[in-house]
Q: What sequence folds into this?
């Protein structure tokens, strides 16, 4: 009914349920210290809920997906007895009914677990629905919500990909676009899917979760501090090269753009027929198949297949090349 699993292949599977020997719903291991919110770290927690009826304080299922270093790390889920009626329409959507939750814990009973997972983290939900639902249930049971920072992944999607800026940014549509397989209207599956979409947005834009907290407050289509366009230094050894960054870099993208421009590269925001260099974050460059790559990466490979001379470099190799270029410029 409730359980937490470790998605890391090299770690033992962890379990927790309402019938553990201690009689406690709390996990038997400590969550504190797992997550870092320093700029550039791709760590966050995704939450999704299902409700028994149109009242958002009738949560009947919750799922939490924990992402660490840009990958799914742990999951936790539970059915919840909403102590409320089930609407036939809601049942038809998620398949959960009164019988399924008759022995499930209440929101008040699972709240210590939820709070321990979310406290002091960036918490992601796709649209405000889930955020409002957990807040409403806390009000209903007179519980104090934990300290966290909320990030709406739907707002991220609308800003990361122009195709979704005005419509089509619902979870199922975006998942279909990127080929993400998941079981719709299952709270844990929805949470995992939203997390995978956010990871793709981070790779596409180079903006960390911290940076996205700021970016979603800006209008769609507006420039932000991470937008990069640079003219190349005419004396640089790489003058004439047209470079584009994609994926999650270890350094702020503005600094990387400045270094590339000093070495002579013109830096553009997107891949075009003029692109000659694509620099990919080291973790992203190792990804092999389909939509695990950013759209810039896929477009570059398509242009290469068509005969365009584009070189794809990992960030570490890019840094080494730029260092040699700077040394060459400095020696003159």
A:
């Amino acid at each position: 009914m409730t359980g937490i699993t470790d998605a890391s292949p090299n770690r033992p599977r962890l379990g927790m349920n309402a019938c553990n020997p201690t009689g406690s719903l709390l996990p038997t291991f400590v969550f504190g210290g797992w997550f870092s919110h320093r700029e550039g770290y791709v760590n966050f927690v995704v939450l999704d809920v299902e409700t028994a009826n149109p009242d958002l304080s009738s949560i009947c299922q919750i799922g939490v997906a924990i992402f660490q270093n840009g990958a799914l790390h742990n999951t936790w889920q539970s059915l919840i007895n909403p102590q409320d009626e089930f609407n036939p329409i809601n049942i038809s959507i998620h398949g959960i009914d009164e019988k399924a939750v008759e022995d499930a814990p209440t929101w008040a009973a699972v709240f210590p677990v939820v709070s321990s997972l979310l406290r002091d983290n960036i918490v992601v939900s796709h649209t405000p629905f889930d955020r409002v639902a957990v807040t409403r249930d806390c009000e209903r049971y007179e519980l104090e919500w934990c300290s966290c920072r909320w990030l709406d992944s739907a707002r991220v999607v609308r800003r990361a990909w122009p195709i979704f800026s005005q419509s089509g940014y619902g979870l199922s549509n975006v998942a279909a676009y990127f080929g993400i397989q998941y079981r719709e209207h299952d709270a844990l599956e929805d949470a995992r899917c939203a997390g995978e979409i956010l990871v793709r947005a981070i790779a596409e834009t180079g903006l960390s979760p911290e940076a996205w907290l700021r970016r979603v407050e800006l209008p769609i289509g507006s420039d932000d501090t991470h937008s990069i366009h640079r003219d190349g230094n005419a004396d640089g050894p790489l003058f004439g090269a047209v470079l584009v960054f994609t994926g999650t870099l270890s350094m702020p993208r503005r600094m990387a753009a400045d270094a590339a421009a000093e070495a002579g590269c013109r830096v553009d925001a997107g891949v075009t027929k003029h692109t000659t260099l694509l620099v990919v974050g080291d973790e992203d460059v190792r990804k092999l198949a389909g939509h695990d790559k950013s759209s810039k990466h896929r477009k570059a490979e398509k242009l290469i297949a068509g005969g365009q001379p584009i070189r794809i470099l990992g960030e570490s190799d890019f840094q080494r090349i730029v260092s040699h270029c700077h040394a060459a410029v400095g020696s003159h």
